Amino acid sequence: MSDYNYDYDLPSKPYVWMGNEALVEGALAAGCRFFAGYPITPQNEVPERMSERLPKLGGRFIQMEDEMASISAVVGASFAGLKAMTSTSGPGFSLMQEIMSWAASIEVPMVVADVQRTGPGAGIVNLPHHSDIIQAHYGGNGEYPVIAYAPASCQELFDFSIDAFNDADAYRTPVVIFSDSLLGHIHEKVIVPPLEELKKRVIPRKLVAYEEDGKTPLPRNKYITFTSFDKKAKTYKITIPPNIATNYFPEWLPAVTHSAQAIASEYQEAAEIEVYNLNNKIGEKVIKVQEYMTADADVAIICYGLPFRSALRAVKLARAEGIKAGLFRLVTVWPFPRKAVRELSQKVKKLLVPEINIGQIVIWVEAAVEDGTKVEAIPAISRLHEPQELLDKLKEAVH
Amino acid sequence: MQSLPPFPEKPLHPYELTSYTGRKFAQAFHIFCRGCGYGAIGQLFCRIFKDDNVDETLYPFIVGVGCYSALPLALPGRSLMTPHGRTLAVATGIKLANPKLTPICIAGDGDNLAIGTNHFVQACRRNIGIILVMLHNNIYGMTGGQVAPTTPMGMRASTATYGYLEPEFDPVALALTAGATYVARWTTGHPRQFMKSIRKAMQWKGFSFIDMISQCPTYFGRNNDMGEPIDVFNWIKGNSIPIEKTKGMSEEELKGKFVIGEFRESPQKELSEKYIELIQTLRSRSKGK
Fold first, then answer.
1. pLDDT under 70: residue ranges of chain B
2. Which of A143, A150, A208, B6 has a CB 3.0–4.6 Å from the CB of A305, allowing a cystine?
3. Residues of B with CB below 8 A from A99's CB?
């Protein structure tokens, strides 16, 4: 694996980048070589930098006619063998849901960055609002999985972009990166690691599948196009995505319900197998969380994205005042870490969920809690929580 | 479960084993209605692929949503089915990412002139190396015969019970205006000319658009007093005029007629070629530093 040509070109050193630029560089470092997009504030710096950087790296950039076209072109490019992404904001993200659903059903690896802004409607373009958290998972028709990362700094935008592309290829599913107009426009220090280290972190797109010994190339007749359930090993077998120019590509890759061998079907059984395979293939291994001082906590904050920064400060201040506060951060919002949240709820008396919306993940936290632990949403509309505000809530919770 | 008739001992037809069903079941079949033109169009592609020994990895079919979503059963090579209207956008991604490929898009009149018109216009303008074959049957067949942007004014459909009030779209005029570099129109009554156009388009550098008028006896014919399958076919064939013969004809005379032939052949630089050149220029510039 390590003998492939890794051609990212920036030397390892600290840079000062805007969030949107850090996202681009992270994607390029991850091997993204195709970008299709459509202008929408506040993500405009993403396509702008992509159009300058991609041709230099031998990649392709195209500005399409709308968001549906952008994400469709990304699916096409992914089938043609390039790691591909698009970026958008709320109104564009809702247009993309049609293709998100399709891409998830035919298991296309791709990355969608959603630099969220205030909604509903056109909203306010330059204020942050985590308005698309639920939409990312349930926006499209049908039931399909997504993996969603929620970075909180420019360095994380760079790092999580690499993870996002790796997960997209490993699990063959669309991966969403949640940014917002505040995070997208912060200028911060980003350290680009040495190329050797980056190369080790990046999983290249595979063109050839191998047998179980890992050496013999898999012949066409043994290759299964989509995820299948191995009944003996009780695991989901995720194969490499079929490249349209190789013999792995099936004669007919249907957009309708299909079997793992890419045979279109209208039987109820086929739908059952497909829906379960799609939704269960990801499992819990992909979930990433960060815990801070939760071991002895009486009260804990659960958060994702930018509120993590306020919450970390609030927890530190609370600890200085002797309040046993903890912090539980969802690095990946989807899939939701139901088990970990349940375990946390058994330790603490109260869970606080600050979100930059009226409460989208708090519903999931409430559903995960079993033993009557109190859950309180701390909504903020189009603004980031002040640490003092969260500190007051922490104090309130223990008194 | 449907049981198929037993396999014949040897192929009945020289192109029997070229299509998807032929390869899979050793017997070619399709699931279109009696008298539909789509099966024939699938077979014309089989002829081209077999006779010219086409490398199927280089010419993937990108199929949209309509009756012709089932066309891959009758097609050679490999097909990718896309959501309704997005064929050209998906093909744009494929062509840019791998310029060696030439996607052949199969889209319908609803696909291409209603939900996906924007992609159609923009692909013509970009002059990207894609072949678009638009199956033009004047109706939404799969959903039950609703009116389409190509339904001639006054004709009836299941959502135009008293006759369609709006004038119909002329896709060829749209493609010419938008800047497609190869534009042709044929009908199912002109299979050899259609095959010639496809062969030309497969070698064409740039966007090629072929409007293929096809009969829909089940919905279009039945609603418009053309009960027998052959009636719609004859209606199309009888109303088509080769472009060479239209000189000196007035607009009144051309009303309700299908002008067929090759409308434009003007080579222009193709988009993915331009992009590769840009990459090479940037690389040589950075080496020069």
1. 1, 7-12, 288-289
2. A150
3. 83, 86
Whether B93 and A84 lie within 8 Å, measured CB to CB:
yes
pLDDT tens-digit map of A212-249: 877 888 888 889 999 999 888 888 999 999 999 998 99
**Range of the structural domain that residue B227 is part of:** 33-288
A65, B96: Cβ pair inside 8 Å?
no
- Best mutation site among B24, B62, B80, B88 for testing chain A: the one with the most A CBs within 10 Å? B80
- pLDDT tens-digit profile of A292-314? 999 999 999 999 999 999 999 99
Neighbours of B18 (CB within 10 A): 24
> Which of A134, A95, A121, A116 is CA-nearest to residue A185?
A116
Chain A, nearest residue to B69 by Cα: A254
- Give the tokens for residue A157: 């935008």
> Is B76 domain-assigned?
yes
Query: How many angstroms away from the CA of A262 is the closest CA of chain B?
Result: 11
For residue A52, the tally of other CB atoms under 10 A from its CB is 12
Higher confidence at residue A370 or residue A4? A370
Residues A74-128: pLDDT tens digits? 999 999 999 999 999 999 999 999 999 999 999 999 999 999 999 899 999 999 9
Does this model's pTM top 0.80? My answer is yes
- Kindly report the CATH class assigned to A289-398: alpha beta
Q: How far is A250 from chain B (nearest CA, A)?
A: 6
Looking at domain A14-201, its CATH superfamily turns out to be Thiamin diphosphate (ThDP)-binding fold, Pyr/PP domains (3.40.50.970)
Mean of all residue pLDDT scores within chain B: 91
The whole-number pLDDT of residue A114 equals 96
Q: Rounded to the nearest 10 degrees, how much is the dihedral formed by the CA atoms of B248, B250, B254, B255?
A: 180
> Cα–Cα distance between B275 and A326 in angstroms, integer?
52
This model of the complex carries an ipTM of 0.94
How many CB atoms lie under 10 A from the CB of residue A371?
7
Q: Do A251 and B65 touch (CB under 8 A)?
A: no
Record: contact B279-A69, CB cut-off 8 A: no
| pLDDT tens digits, one per residue of B153-189 | 999 999 999 999 999 989 999 999 999 999 999 999 9
Torsion sign (Cα): B250, B255, B260, B264: positive
Q: Where are the domains of chain A?
A: 14-201, 220-280, 289-398
Q: Could you tell me if residue B22 is inside a domain?
A: no
Q: Which residue of A has its CA nearest to B272?
A: A60
- Output the pLDDT for position B256: 86
Distance CA(A119)–CA(A382), nearest Å, equals 9
Identify the pLDDT of residue A283.
87
In a domain, B4, yes or no: no
3-state helix, strand, coil in chain B (%, to 5): 40, 15, 40
CATH number for the domain spanning B51: value is: 3.40.50.970
Residue B8: inside a domain, yes or no?
no
Q: Is A14 helix (H, G, I), strand (E, B) or coil?
A: strand
Reported confidence tier of residue A1, pLDDT bands at 50, 70, 90: very low
Residues of chain A numbered 245-264 and touching chain B (CB < 8 Å): 245-247, 249-256
The residue whose two tokens read 């290759």 is A223
Domains: count for chain B: 1
Segment A169-187 mean pLDDT: 95
**A14-201 against A289-398: fold identical:** yes
Chain B residues within an 8 Å CB radius of A64:
89, 92, 122
